[in-house]
Amino acid sequence: MFCLNLNNFPGGTQGMQCPSCQHTDSRVLESRSADIGRSVRRRRECLNCDFRFTTYERVETVPITVVKRNGNREAFNRSKLLHGLLRACEKTGLEPSRLETVVDELELELQGRSGREVASREIGELALQQLAGMSDVAYIRFASVYRQFQSVADFVATLDGLSQHPRSKSLAAVL
Ligand SMILES: [Zn+2]
Questions:
Q1: How far is the CA of 30 from the centre of ligand 1 (A)?
Q2: CA 70 – CA 130 distance, rounded (Å)
Q3: What pLDDT shows up at residue 112?
Q4: Tell me: the pLDDT tens digits for 1-45?
Q5: How far apart are the first and last CA of the chain?
Q6: In the beta sheet, which residues pair with residue 75?
Q7: Kind plus residue range of the DSSP H or E element containing 54
């Protein structure tokens, strides 16, 4: 990961160390974009002593290129993805801030890779994987809206690539 824990002691090499007991395993309670997506603020809870602390993990941003279905390339646009998610998740009760978290996590994942090119369909898959744990309704709606996107705006790709995703098999019947 290209993350820097700004709470860390200078020169420390541990990742997300508990400020109370120095344990290095914690669980994330909440993620929030900060600094216009260039860093992620996380509330964490130490798995050893339950101490709660906040980290600001800075993303080392390198431009990500999205390869669209038609072969065209364009810069990854987080607001475009967020807009698509918001549209798909209207009236599902999902808080917009949670969708921002989806985009944050997705961008972090892309930034953590060695390659800087990603297929648009893969972005769609990653977004669906995140939604899967949040709301079945949102998941299904995103999947269906996202098909329209594909034919209308050629934005994100098909569900084909989701075949390895266990959930998609049952969804295929629904859709
Ligand atoms: Zn601790």
A1: 17
A2: 25
A3: 75
A4: 334 444 433 333 335 788 899 998 999 888 887 766 677 788 999
A5: 36
A6: 65
A7: strand 52-58
Tens of pLDDT along 78-116? 888 888 888 888 888 888 888 888 888 888 788 777 777
Beta strands 39-46 and 26-34: pairing type? Answer: antiparallel
Residue type, 23: H
Strand pairing class (52-58; 65-67):
unpaired
145 vs 124: CA distance, rounded Å: 11
Residue 19, helix vs strand vs coil:
coil
Cβ atoms of residues 138 and 88 within 8 Å? yes
Which residues are registered as beta bridge partners of 117? 65
Which of 98, 121, 123 minimizes the C-alpha distance to 113? 123
Phi, psi (deg, nearest 5) at residue 48: -90, -50
CA distance linking residue 155 with residue 148, whole number of Å: 9
What's the 103 CA to ligand 1 centre distance in angstroms?
Answer: 29
Contact 1, 112 (CB under 8 A): yes
How far apart are the CA of 51 and the centre of ligand 1, in A?
5
- Cα 154 to ligand 1 centre (Å): 47
